[in-house]
Specification:
InterPro entries: HTH_MarR-typ, WH-like_DNA-bd_sf, WH_DNA-bd_sf. By secondary structure, the protein is mainly alpha-helical. Helix content is 66%, strand content 9%. The chain starts with a helix and ends with a helix.
Length: 160
């Protein structure tokens, strides 16, 4: 087998200093380019200034806006410590994305509520993701997109 690999390697026409076009490397390159596109659309929609964790927490609050959400819910949902969540929420409050409101049954508890700015941030973030998705999907035919998703899902399932 080693002899077969050596013979096969010798038949290659690539210069020796070029790395092989292996699947993980190509996926990483494409991932980097897609993230650049996400960042471009985020800038265009005015949502590049927040951290990913802010975005995830805002998305969580948006999905649960009809329920009372407290700091402990964020701690549990994202598996992060109380002190870390406290710092994140304080910064989000200073940026105007959330408010902490007292609840009548327990003055110690503060309900987390998205502000209008937080809702706008969420909607602009989602818009950025949709724009990126539409842009990337538009680079391939419908059949190619279907096949790419099928293959990526197959790889993901096999790598779990």
């Amino acid at each position: 087998m080693c002899d077969e690999i050596k013979i096969d390697c010798c038949k290659r026409t690539d210069p020796p200093w070029e790395s092989p076009q292996v699947i993980p490397a190509q996926i990483r390159r494409v991932d980097n380019l897609i993230f650049r596109k996400i960042n471009q659309f985020a800038r265009e929609n005015g949502v590049e200034q927040a951290t990913p964790m802010h975005g995830w927490i805002i998305e969580y609050l948006y999905r649960h806006r009809d329920a009372a959400v407290f700091q402990r819910d964020i701690e549990r949902e994202f598996s992060i410590t109380r002190s870390t969540v406290t710092n994140i929420l304080q910064l989000m409050e200073r940026k105007g994305y959330i408010e902490r409101r007292s609840v009548p049954q327990d003055a110690r508890l503060k309900q987390l509520v998205l502000t209008e700015e937080g809702i706008r941030f969420h909607e602009n973030t989602i818009r950025s993701f949709h724009q990126t998705d539409d842009y990337v999907a538009g680079l391939l035919t419908e059949e190619e997109n279907t096949e790419l998703l099928r293959l990526l899902n197959k790889l993901r399932d096999a790598l779990k």
